[in-house]
Amino acid sequence: MPEADRELVNIRRFLKERLQRDYTTLRGYAEERSNVRLLLQRTAEMGESNSLLLIGPRGSGKTTLINSVLADLLPNKSFGENTLIVHLDGNLHTDDRVALKSITVQMQLENAADGKVFGSFAENLAFLLQCLKSGGKNSKSVVFILEEFDLFCAHHNQTLLYNLFDVSQSAQAPICVLGVTCRLDVIELLEKRVKSRFSHRQVFLFPSSQRFEEYVDLCKDLLSLPTGNSLLLAAERIYNLQNIQSGALYFSRNHFDPGEYGFSPRIRDAWNKQICKVLATQQAKSTLQSLHDFDISEAYLKNFLFRLVAHLRPQSPHITAEKMAAVGSQFEGDDKIELLCGLSVLELCLIIAIKHHSEIYDRDPFNFEIIYARFSKFAKVSTTMQAVERSIVLKAFEHLRIAELIMPLSGGAGGGVGKVQKEFEMHKLALTYGQIQHCVQRYQALPTEVAQWAQSSLI
């Protein structure tokens, strides 16, 4: 492989790993980060038990904040040697039994079980609580990190949450429960007995009102190649996550060779100059402005830059304003509109009939019979849709359901009594009127009468 191509491969690999695997670099949220850090320090060093919820939209940096704090604290002996980290995720640990098994493994309590065979969830839970409560103020502290906290609220009787919060309220072994969720109403999901044992500490993370100039600087920082110690620090951030999840930081600078990526000073400087030059152009700023207007979160920008870096090839080894505009146009595309544009004319006619029904009846639910009656009125005066058999229209309606453009209502129209025929099962529209309008405008070779029908609610 030519030297230039090898260096391009190394540049791509480094940037993709930074954009995809750097889970410990947190920008902003200084006050929120300080609150979480202080809480964990007091649990580890002073034997206090605490509970806290991190609440914010997806991609706002909740998990990154926790990882950032742990990356700072775990190298300290007073914290790293006296703290166990237990990670749970509501998507993986779908009930308390599975969660309890994972806790036992992560706390390394398999040997403490001493060959005991537990026949029930209650016995497993009693054993875990005994292990936690048998410790005193000087025993190891345990930090429980519950991702997708709201999903744990759906577990039967919220037994796990109740007992974790109960231990955190007692003066026994120090534990800290950190819940991570995107639901603002999560407190309302807790049962009364669980809510009474929660400390009601909440930290809210929302994307800050970042100025566009700061957004461009962030983009430049993410795309630039670091040098010297900066490269070492960048590598630490990339590789720290797996060590955080295992409860200790095993990363050592001796394990990382800065020459691994093969950045020659000449190539590195040329790359950084090119990035500065591109981001100064009006076309690049226009692309970034549209991204900034849509979503100012760092996660959204990283996703865009990852796709941009993935397009680098030996034939076109540089990021250009034209490439940014091309990826930006794809990135801002609406998947639902693309799906709509791939429908048959008949299926699109049903979508239009559903749109008219929803507009007239304020988005009331509908079934096939209602939509078929509306479609039939149009078909009688249409040269395109005449003589379409009912069975074919029903198949088209079912395809819309399979594609999740319409969603069935739970329970159906029969109120749970017997099985409802598919023609009478009630549905709701899973699209906005704007998406349907965009599809009608973009649809290739759409019959004029169908396009006109989409604009009118008279039929």
Automatic annotation (TrEMBL):
Entry keyword set = ATP-binding, DNA replication, DNA-binding, Nucleotide-binding, Nucleus
Could you tell me which SMART domains the record lists for this protein? AAA
Family matches, as Pfam families: AAA_16, ORC4_C
Gene Ontology molecular functions: ATP binding; DNA replication origin binding; ribonucleoprotein complex binding
Q: Which Gene3D superfamilies match?
A: P-loop containing nucleotide triphosphate hydrolases
**Does the record bear Nucleotide-binding in its keywords?**
yes
What role does this protein play?
Component of the origin recognition complex (ORC) that binds origins of replication.
In its UniProt entry, what is this protein called? Origin recognition complex subunit 4
Species annotation: Drosophila simulans (Fruit fly)
- Give the encoding gene's name: Dsim\GD24914
